[in-house]
Amino acid sequence: MLAKHGDDNDWLVCAVYQDGMFLYIEDLPETVPQALRDIRHWLNTHNRLGWVRLDEQFDTVEGLAVYDQS
């Protein structure tokens, strides 16, 4: 959904580019999809809240869902 609609969502700031997207994740509403909550939890665990880059050219993170952007 974010790859298709980008920043047109009720949850977070999203900037889409050719190979992925940047997400600004801090506070998320309860209605956000589980995959975004999982990313936020991982970021929080690693003291990295704020901007995160999701890129299909980079390695995956164990425990987080992997999706094909196309």
- Assembly context of the chains: single chain
Low-confidence stretches: none
Helix content: 10-25%
The 3D shape can be described as globular
How big is the Rg? 11 Å
Biggest sheet, open or closed, and with what strands and sense?
Answer: 3 strands, antiparallel
Instruction: Look at the helices and sheets and give the structural class.
Output: alpha+beta
**Helix count, per DSSP?**
2
Beta-strand proportion: 15-25%
What is the ordering of alpha helices and beta strands? HEEHE
- Average pLDDT confidence is 83
* Domain module count: 1
Note the gap between the termini: 11 Å
What is the strand tally?
Answer: 3
Would you spell out the secondary-structure blueprint of this structure?
Layout: H1 2-5, E1 13-17, E2 20-25, H2 34-45, E3 50-55
Antiparallel strand pairs: 1-2, 2-3
Q: Characteristics of this structure?
A:
single chain; 70 residues; alpha+beta; three-stranded antiparallel beta sheet; 2 helices; 3 strands
Describe the structure in your own words.
- This protein is an alpha+beta fold.
- Helix content is 23%, strand content 24%.
- The protein has one domain (2-55).
- It is globular, with a radius of gyration of 11 Å.
- The model has no long low-confidence stretch (mean pLDDT 83).
